[in-house]
Amino acid sequence: MRSQICRSASRAARYLLSAPRQSSHVFAEGRAAAAAAAVSLRGKVPYLTSYGRTDSGNASIGWISGALALPAAAYMLQEQEAHAAEMERTFIAIKPDGVQRGLIAEIISRFERKGFKLVAIKIVVPSKGFAQKHYHDLKERPFFNGLCDFLSSGPVIAMVWEGEGVIKYGRKLIGATDPQKSEPGTIRGDLAVVVGRNIIHGSDGPETAKDEINLWFKPEELVNYTNNAEKWVYGEN
Ligand code: DAT
Ligand code: MG
Predict the structure, then answer these.
(1) Can you tell me which residues form the catalytic site (predicted)?
(2) For the chain, which terminus, N or C, has the lower number of CB atoms within 10 Å?
(3) What is the pLDDT of residues 52-62, one digit of tens each?
(4) CATH classification (class only), 92-231
């Protein structure tokens, strides 16, 4: 309940703090922010306890609490955004073989069921030049040309998944590069046979995750939202 209120206050504060979006709707959100902030800080900030009460008989206290509510909402916004900034993200792609074999839903569901959050998704046919950029660190390898031809041979599902430890654990869900060596239970272990057709890509570390997300997505294509399941996945309820 408290985190819901914080989120609503933070959302409203975000509207209020973004100058170009001023409208009556924004001010309505602002009132909601103030109210939500006041409610959620009740008990922590003494002046806020009487916010919204008309029967207190003490107008100045009501005014002070109203004045404090917005900074409080802004503070909670910072807190929430700091938390969001900490939340790890990784780039995951279903390669043309995975798409053609009808494995999109199967692969997505493994990440989804684990408890990770999908924050960006699109279907694209990368050009060969784009594939070369994506695999630039492998350009000296003998299979580089064939690999780039393959990645650009058809539609790819490009995604960004978010969650605690998602980079490393995403790689665990995917399994070893060579499906002959991937454990059963992993995506490649269960669904692929040879290294040249191993159906899925996943970033291998924080730096590559950042670079790959930036290569495949514009910032506005990443969606910040609260998933209702989060409080059950992370135990904040
Ligand atoms: P991963 O995809 O597990 O991160 P990688 O980055 O070493 O593995 O290689 C990228 C892709 O290149 C890999 O998914 C499949 C292909 N590949 C790797 N080694 C290969 C090989 N020996 N022969 C053919 N293709 C290979
Ligand atoms: Mg790799």
Answers:
(1) 201 (pros-phosphohistidine intermediate)
(2) N
(3) 333 334 445 45
(4) alpha beta
